[in-house]
Amino acid sequence: MGLREDFTDQLKTAMKAGDSARTSTVRMILAKLKDTDIAARPKGVAAVPDAEIVAMLRGMVKSRRESAVLYRQGNRPELAAKEEAEIAVIESFLPQEMDAAATMAAIDAAIAATGAAAVRDMGKVMAELRARHAASLDMARVGPLVKAKLGG
Questions:
Q1: CA terminus-to-terminus distance, the chain
Q2: How far is CA 67 from the centre of its chain?
Q3: For residues 84 and 68, is the Cβ–Cβ distance under 8 A?
Q4: Which residues contact 48 (CB under 8 A, 6 or more apart)?
Q5: CA-CA distance, 27 to 145, in Å (whole number)?
Q6: N or C: which end of the chain has fewer CB within 10 A?
Q7: Distance CA 95, CA 122 (A)
Q8: Between vectors from CA 93 to CA 54 and to CA 141, what angle results, nearest 5°?
Q9: How much of the chain exceeds pLDDT 90, in percent?
Q10: pLDDT recorded at residue 152
Q11: Residue 3 CB burial class (10 angstroms; 0-12, 13-18, ≥19)
């Protein structure tokens, strides 16, 4: 079952359970997905694949984390808590991320596969990681690790 079907199933379940917070968050995800689909139409894509949906969800989590930090700094804990509750719902749809050891092994394998020797080869390594592990790696967190491995 794809992520799209999972969203609609979770929306129905949340609505039946009367879980208004989860219902609104899943509706927000579906609205963002519709926007993403519409943005992809000029490229000839009717519905974006799961890999792009995962990237969209990671972006939603990132923006909510930033908002939560700003709300805490602004002494608005109730708004920060709302953002964190949305993060929990969004993350429930994301695939399990690799642990630190598996991440480092994947980076080492990508460096070996591309023959990367210096920081200038970082793009090749990142492309290799994206091709092999896009769903289970957060590329924003992997970038600095790859750079460090290549001596950056």
A1: 41
A2: 16
A3: yes
A4: 33, 36, 37, 40, 56
A5: 35
A6: N
A7: 25
A8: 50
A9: 48
A10: 66
A11: buried
